[in-house]
Write a structure and sequence with these properties.
Layout lengths: L1 E5 L4 H12 L3 E6 L14 E6 L14 E4 L11 H21 L4 E7 L10 E2 L10 H15 L5 E7 L1 E3 L7 H10 L4 E3 L5 E2 L2 E3 H12 L6 E5 L6 E2 H12 L5 E3 L8 E2 L2 H7 L6 H14 L1
Parallel strand pairs: 1-2, 1-4, 2-3, 4-5, 5-7, 6-15, 7-12, 8-11, 9-14
Antiparallel strand pairs: 10-13
Helix pairs in contact: 1-5, 2-3, 4-6
């Protein structure tokens, strides 16, 4: 299968590309970062690397069957609405239009739990109301709207993703908590007794993508993903502290948002999603962190 993956320079994109190459696919990928090596990964599949901005593309790589759009600007310090509009909204719109022009069979979009905005429900699924998403969440939601608009012409899957963990993962609560534990810094948290499953291991995500590649479903499909089961916030922090022999003090702070878990029932029922349990997800992440 000919697959075009965006975001080769990012954590998720690089893992997805390597997984697809191991499966024997022809993979083309794109990055704006010319410092990234052009050395072909030693995998069974064939590999093509394009240095370009998505917004400047005039066509997709020849004979593309599937687009997997992992690229995007996340809400890091210093990012503003222009970055979200240009790199999330316009880039996704461009890819959808090119996919329609080139008669792509399937589009897999890395969306985010941030599309929901303020979450009030204890369990979040695909039908949970969307309430006041921030600029980042709104930019990812617009990508979903683009796919919904052309659902009769392009089969698509919007993966509403939690924290993605694995070797080298960062920019989420588990990663920042781990960093604080390694430095013996105070760890501030709220709702310590609340359940938490809001993470997916990159290997489980890649395996799920493999299932979607063969899915016969048409139209637009939004899917919430996470790990099976849960641990409490306090259990997670203590597990991280134990793993790192940390002396960090746990400081309880006032609640700044409602705690919730993520339902994976649709993914399991309709797409045979089989993730590891959250405790195993966390264990794998902590073991990989030791190797970094």
């Amino acid at each position: 299968m000919n697959i075009f993956v965006t975001g080769w320079g990012g954590f998720s994109g690089s893992h997805v590309v390597n997984f697809l190459l191991q499966c024997g696919h022809h993979v083309a990928t794109i990055t704006r970062d010319k410092s990234i090596s052009t050395v072909k990964p030693r995998m069974p599949g064939t590999f093509e690397l394009i240095y370009a901005d998505i917004n400047n593309l005039t066509s997709l790589p020849k004979n593309t069957d599937v687009v997997i759009h992992t690229a995007g600007t996340s809400p890091d310090f210093g990012k503003n609405s222009y970055d979200f509009i240009n790199n999330n909204i316009l880039a996704t719109q461009k890819l959808v239009c090119l996919s329609l022009d080139d008669h792509v069979k399937k589009f897999i979009y890395f969306s985010s739990m941030s599309v929901y905005g303020t979450i009030l429900a204890p369990i979040v699924d695909e039908d949970t109301p969307i309430l006041n998403p921030d600029a980042y969440g709104a930019s990812k939601l617009f990508g979903e709207f683009c796919l919904q608009e052309y659902a009769d012409k392009l089969s698509s899957f919007a993966l509403r993703l939690p924290a993605i963990v694995g070797k080298g993962a960062r920019k989420h609560w588990l990663a920042t908590t781990l960093e604080k534990a390694l430095k013996d810094e105070p760890i501030k948290a709220f709702n310590l007794s609340s359940p938490f499953n809001n993470a997916i291991h990159i290997q489980d995500l890649c395996l799920f993508i493999d299932k979607l590649l063969s899915s016969p479903l048409k139209g637009f499909n939004a899917i919430t993903l996470a790990s099976e089961g849960h641990l409490t916030i306090s259990s997670i922090i203590n597990k991280i502290k134990k793993s790192t022999n940390s002396l960090s003090q746990i400081i309880t702070i006032p609640e700044t948002s409602k705690s919730f878990t993520i339902s994976i029932e649709k993914a399991k029922r309709e797409f045979q999603y089989q993730p590891r349990y959250f405790e195993n997800t966390l264990d794998a992440y902590l073991n990989e962190a030791r190797l970094c």
